[in-house]
Backbone:
């Protein structure tokens, strides 16, 4: 079965073809980062219009890469939500229009399920069950995953997501959008301990997170600087911020691993690309004797491959999950 995946929830247009027998056949992505950068964040109207421009050329690109015909597609999976309404509408209309034209069934996929399953696209995927830390721009969640569709939410952020904290703190430091990779790069040059930030909810007995106070702490430190902040100061603040955030994420993962007794931890979502987080998790996993799995770097942030894959897994489990009723909700 070959599934076409269409992702358009935010500022990336991603299309991909996943074959349940041969694996990922092709994927193509257009990132709108350069377009949104001058505004310091995603402009929803511009995002929707750009998805309209990009979707069809990206479809042609994956068809060519996979060397298949459109009639070879068995089903079309599109990101149903959550995301920007206009941006989601583009992907949903495209998928349903194409489905209708080809007489192929369509199915809406939850964006977070796409992220959650993206590590399974790796060459050495984890087996079920596992604990998953889902850290993206909009969400921070710990889940227990027992199989496709068998997800139990263990904890989540009570306010800002980890990626949001990265982006907002980076903005305060004058770094371009998206701030996550930028602040991470800068932190490499910072001195550990020069700025110590709070570790929100580190000792709460649950698996929830809270990151909005961390961003406020960064703002306070910046405001309290009497002289102009020099580059080294910025790097030191970035380092303090990243260390605090990573400490909390790692501690909560450890608690989830301990409480569940499971031996596999899976990281998914854009912040999963963060090198300080990966280093800290790898170190702790080696010590506590559990395995950590990450998606390929290119599949940490939004992409069509994870939507094609999640759609294919859903269909494998339940062929009736896709429909030829082409009305849709986003
Ligand atoms: O998963 P994603 O592409 O989109 C959402 O579904 O939200 O995640 C985007 C988020 C942004 O906040 C971005 O700053 C963050 O992931 N991010 C990173 C890194 N790469 C992307 N944060 C920290 N370090 C990175 N290397
Ligand atoms: Zn995402």
Residues:
């Amino acid at each position: 079965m070959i599934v076409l995946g269409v992702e358009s929830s935010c500022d990336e247009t991603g299309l991909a073809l996943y074959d349940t027998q041969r694996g990922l056949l092709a994927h193509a992505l257009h990132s709108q980062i350069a377009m949104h950068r001058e505004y310091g964040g995603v402009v929803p109207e511009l995002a929707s219009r750009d998805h309209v421009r990009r979707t069809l050329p990206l479809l042609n690109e994956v068809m060519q890469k996979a060397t298949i015909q459109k009639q070879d597609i068995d089903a079309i999976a599109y990101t149903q939500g959550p995301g920007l309404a206009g941006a989601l509408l583009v992907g949903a209309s495209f998928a349903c229009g194409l489905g209708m034209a080809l007489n192929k069934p369509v199915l809406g996929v939850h964006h977070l399920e796409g992220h959650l399953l993206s590590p399974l696209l790796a060459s050495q995927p984890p087996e079920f069950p596992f604990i998953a830390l889902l850290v993206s721009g909009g969400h921070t969640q710990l889940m227990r995953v027992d199989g496709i569709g068998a997800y139990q939410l263990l904890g989540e952020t009570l306010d800002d997501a980890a990626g949001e904290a990265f982006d907002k703190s980076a903005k305060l430091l004058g770094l371009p959008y998206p701030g996550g990779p930028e602040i991470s790069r800068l932190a490499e040059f910072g001195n550990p301990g020069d700025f110590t930030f709070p570790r929100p909810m580190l000792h709460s007995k649950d698996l929830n997170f809270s990151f909005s106070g961390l961003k406020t702490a960064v703002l306070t430190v910046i405001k309290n600087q009497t002289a102009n902040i020099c580059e080294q100061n910025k790097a030191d603040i970035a380092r303090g911020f990243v260390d605090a955030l990573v400490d909390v994420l790692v501690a909560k993962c450890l608690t989830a691993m301990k409480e569940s007794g499971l031996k596999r931890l899976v990281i998914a979502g854009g912040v999963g690309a963060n090198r300080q987080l990966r280093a800290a998790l790898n170190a702790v996993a080696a010590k506590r004797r559990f395995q950590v799995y990450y998606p390929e770097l290119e599949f940490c942030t939004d992409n069509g491959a994870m939507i094609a894959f999640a759609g294919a897994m859903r269909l494998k489990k339940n062929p009736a999950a896709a429909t030829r009723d082409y009305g849709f909700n986003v």
Q: What stands out?
A: The chain has a mean pLDDT of 97. The beta strands are 2-7, 12-19, 23-31, 75-81, 106-110, 130-135, 140-147, 150-156, 264-268, 291-293.
